[in-house]
Amino acid sequence: MLEGKKILLGISGSIAAYKTAALTRLFVKAGAEVKVILTPSAKAFITPLTLSTLSKKPVYSSFTEGSQGEWINHVELGLWADYFVIAPLSASTLSKMAMGNSDNLLLASYLSARCKVIVAPAMDLDMYAHPATQNNLSIIKSYGNLIIPPNSGELASGLIGAGRMAEPEEIVDFISKQAQLGMSFKGKRVLITAGPTYEAIDPVRFIGNHSSGKMGFALAEVFANHGAEVVLVSGPTHLHLKHNLITVLNVKSAHDMHAAVIDNYQSADIILMAAAVADYTPSQVSAQKIKKKTSELSIELFQTKDILKELGSLKTEKQILIGFALETQDEEANAIKKLTEKNLDFIVLNSLNNEQTGFGFDTNQIQIIEKGGTITRFEKKLKHQVALDIVNKIKQMLHV
Ligand code: CTP
Asked: Does residue 1 carry a pLDDT above 80?
């Protein structure tokens, strides 16, 4: 149900916190990995030990932990999660979320999270009904957060009405349904290339480029999170990915990348060539390190195979083929030329003329140019969000 899903469970101070022991157990039983963050006041209602035992992971509650005062990276916690579930959500944590306050680890992680945030409020009758609370719920809803409404019943105060946190089974059910909804690429196979290629000159030197691989890796993650089975052919990068739906094939040269892509393209429904493949490779690789002898040295280069062009000629009706172009001049005209020559469904155009975009940066600014000539221009965004835009464009094309 939640197999392989990463859930960050945020617990705020409310008597309903006692239910999070059962909730953690149910998440783990459903196949999810669970990390827990407690607000300082939540610790009065449930112990970190109970939750770390049930989740089999450390539980976090402050920005620093341990005798050495080790810093807990809230950004990493926020990025790690597929779902950030805040249950119970107290009135105080809700108001801070609405206002962007980050005075504890849960709130800082909330502000850093890029995943879906789902909250289960738990409050006393009048607190829940108060216009301030209802207003704050509308505010966080407008941020895209999902709310699992509380049930009616007897509350801790003895009053009867709406305010009881949804039961753990209801919360797990809600998130499982969300996970199903998001699986628009279930059963689809996606082949992605990423990173640079290294073309050997001799045993210690190569010709490479500045591609970091970030765009291709972000695409792989977003597709896998939508249920696709992904093969990621990656040139040398410093990036790592662990996802049960992603197989990473590490290659070095354009020749190796060509071989890995050709091995995998036939079974792929969607192919995205985000790698910066070398166009030329030394015609001969010296077996020994080249010694410094002459004042000038020429290296003869041969053209590599254009992998994308080859795929364009082999492409079937059912396959979607996407290329990337990085241009410094006549950007649109050059990208359109590649789109046609390589028989692509669309091309993603990156410009090197924008600040903080392209090689090595976390942000990118793209245009998507479709076969029919339609151009969609996007704002500068984080590469993960750019990946989402690309995936959404493919969703539209496939009507999934
Ligand atoms: N590409 C490829 N094989 C190559 C070179 C490029 O598959 N040997 C792919 C890239 O992964 C990218 C697209 O082709 O998706 C465009 O790459 P780019 O380097 O921008 O274009 P080139 O066709 O190499 O043209 P030029 O370098 O002259 O701009």
From this structure: no
